Amino acid sequence: FVRARPDDAGIGGDWTREETEWNRWPLLQRWFVALEERPSYRSLSGDFYTHVHDLPPQLGSCARNGHGNACEAHIDGLNGSDAWSLPLPDVDPFEPLPCGQGMQAARLEAAEALLRNRTAVTAFALRALALPGFPPAGADLADPNASVAIPGESSDWVLVDCALRQLVALLLHHGGAAVKRHHLPAELFAGEEGVADRWRECLRYLQRRVGVPRDMGAAAARQLRAHIGAVCA
Fold first, then answer.
1. What is the pLDDT of residue 20?
2. Helices (H), the chain
3. What is the pTM of this model?
């Protein structure tokens, strides 16, 4: 049983069973839809990306069925999917978005989350440049024992902090439009060769670890991942 009609999500394929379940339990479906309109429930709802990456380590064995390549590419923002790039379409082709929150409101929520935890987020992103923690964690995207950067101690901190500030500025003022090189501060590309690769690696580390609802709502996470993708392109 699924929450929304398959054609609402634009997934296509053989969804006969899901359509049958929809028609069989209309009152239950109405109950789910009404529930998702409540802010208290939406604050506890995850997104597809979080689910597909946090469930396998907990369940122990999740296997691909060979029919979800396009869906996987979109959910994981793989090259060629354009899922984590700007501009974003109003309707996600694979995942129903939360009701009652527009694109601008989602961008504001993402910006607020970054600003509220600026120092912690910068330190977390800099884990990308540190050695993996020991002992390693069972989940691919988790590393609770990784080294934590000290605020303001290195040039990498300054650059990652600068990149995150620009990311917030784009979320607040850029309207979700495509990002070009001239939209970014020159200091992100100054200095020795390869310096931009270092802050890009840190932002992509953060991009792959935005959790819903832990860090923000699903629509805000979609905006943040896409803005990071645009900045790092």
1. 56
2. 6-9, 16-24, 26-36, 39-42, 48-59, 69-75, 103-116, 118-125, 155-173, 195-207, 218-232
3. 0.84
